[in-house]
């Protein structure tokens, strides 16, 4: 005699419903596109233009080897007979030098593309170093308090009395004195990153300290202490993720400031050498020929630097407003 199959148990039905509910949940990409931040981004035409320009600069720097007609860092590809050629739309211009050439025969478009790579690399590494120092000291000062808080904040107050460029020049001068006056390109890049990192850590430390002093009095921190978690684990695993919003805003704006600082140091002769120029070095080189009629040598790197910094600043302003719950 045939026995009827047993009916599904309630536990089986519950598991099936849970799996179906999970399958019906939108993907991470869909949730991101439907978020309030993306809605704010789509409403701001200026922010969209700034994002497109920033992305274009980043892609130009990343794929400079493929886009640029020459490698301006390779002396074998340079021809002094092609020096100081005007842009292509001038009657004296010639292909493939779209934006003209400098005194060494370097194609200005290629030099800008490769210079962008160096400026962005120094900016990102400098911001990463500054954020690492500032976040660590801010977490310790805000969570531990007492002597640690006093020492860190007094050091920050003293550094705030000096402009960031002076701190960067001081670090750059001390490093070059310790390592010798003549540095190669790699060592110079490291010195620039250190100079920028030690110039901008104060903003991160003060912001993180203030946020940590609010967060450490909340229930989840008390619960973490109750189960016996050590202070470093509580700071890194529980407190830090809740204070990262303001840090992201500062990092975005500081990226533009770091690029400007690197350009200023290079313009003053304390940055990248002429054999491996950044945007600041290109501007310094072009400034020597500005009054002799070769305006394009300084104009195009200056325009690229100004547009890049403006676009990043606009993105930073939008991110600050988008992450501010009072403006939603």
From TrEMBL:
Against InterPro entries, the record matches this protein to:
BP-dependent_transpt_permease, MetI-like, MetI-like_sf, OppC_N
Q: Where is the signal peptide?
A: none
Sorted alphabetically, which SUPFAM superfamilies does this protein's record hold? Answer: MetI-like
Annotated region described as Disordered, given as residue ranges: 1-20
Top-level taxonomic group: Bacteria
In this protein, which residues make up the domain named ABC transmembrane type-1?
Answer: 116-316
| Keyword list, A-Z | Cell membrane, Membrane, Transmembrane, Transmembrane helix, Transport
Q: How does it sit in the membrane?
A: Multi-pass membrane protein
Q: What is its main location?
A: membrane
The compartments listed are: Cell membrane
Q: Which GO terms describe its biological process?
A: transmembrane transport
Q: What cellular component terms from Gene Ontology apply here?
A: plasma membrane
PROSITE patterns linked: ABC_TM1
Segments traversing the membrane: 46-68, 118-145, 151-171, 183-202, 222-240, 247-268, 295-319
Q: To which protein family does this belong?
A: Belongs to the binding-protein-dependent transport system permease family.
Q: What is this protein called?
A: ABC transporter permease
The organism of origin for this protein? Salinarimonas ramus
């Amino acid at each position: 005699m045939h026995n009827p199959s047993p009916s599904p148990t309630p536990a089986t039905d519950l598991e099936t419903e849970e799996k179906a509910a999970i399958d019906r949940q939108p993907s991470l990409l869909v949730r991101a596109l439907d978020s309030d931040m993306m809605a704010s981004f789509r409403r701001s035409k200026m922010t969209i233009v700034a994002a497109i320009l920033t992305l274009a600069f980043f892609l130009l720097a990343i794929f400079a080897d493929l886009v640029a007609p020459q490698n301006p860092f390779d002396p074998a590809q340079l021809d002094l007979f092609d020096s100081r050629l005007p842009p292509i739309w001038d009657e004296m211009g010639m292909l493939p030098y779209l934006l003209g050439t400098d005194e060494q025969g370097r194609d200005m478009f290629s030099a800008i593309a490769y210079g962008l790579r160096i400026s962005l690399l120094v900016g990102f590494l400098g911001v990463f170093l500054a954020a690492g120092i500032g976040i660590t000291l801010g977490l310790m000062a805000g969570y531990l308090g007492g002597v640690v808080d006093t020492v860190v904040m007094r050091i920050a107050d003293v550094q705030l009395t000096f402009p960031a460029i002076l701190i960067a020049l001081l670090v750059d001068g001390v490093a070059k004195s310790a390592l010798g006056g003549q540095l190669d390109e790699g060592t110079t890049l490291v010195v620039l990153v250190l100079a920028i990192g030690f110039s901008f850590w104060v903003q991160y430390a003060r912001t993180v300290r203030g946020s940590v002093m609010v967060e450490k009095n909340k229930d989840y921190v008390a619960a973490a202490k109750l189960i016996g978690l050590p202070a470093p684990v509580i700071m890194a695993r529980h407190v830090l993720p809740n204070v990262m919003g303001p840090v992201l805003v500062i990092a975005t704006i500081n990226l533009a400031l770091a690029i400007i600082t690197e350009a200023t140091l290079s313009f003053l002769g304390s940055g990248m050498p002429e054999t491996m120029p950044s945007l600041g070095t290109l501007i310094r080189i072009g400034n020597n020929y500005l009054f002799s009629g070769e305006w394009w040598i300084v104009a195009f790197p200056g325009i690229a630097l100004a547009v890049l910094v403006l676009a990043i600043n606009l993105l930073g302003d939008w991110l600050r407003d988008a992450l501010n719950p009072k403006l939603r």
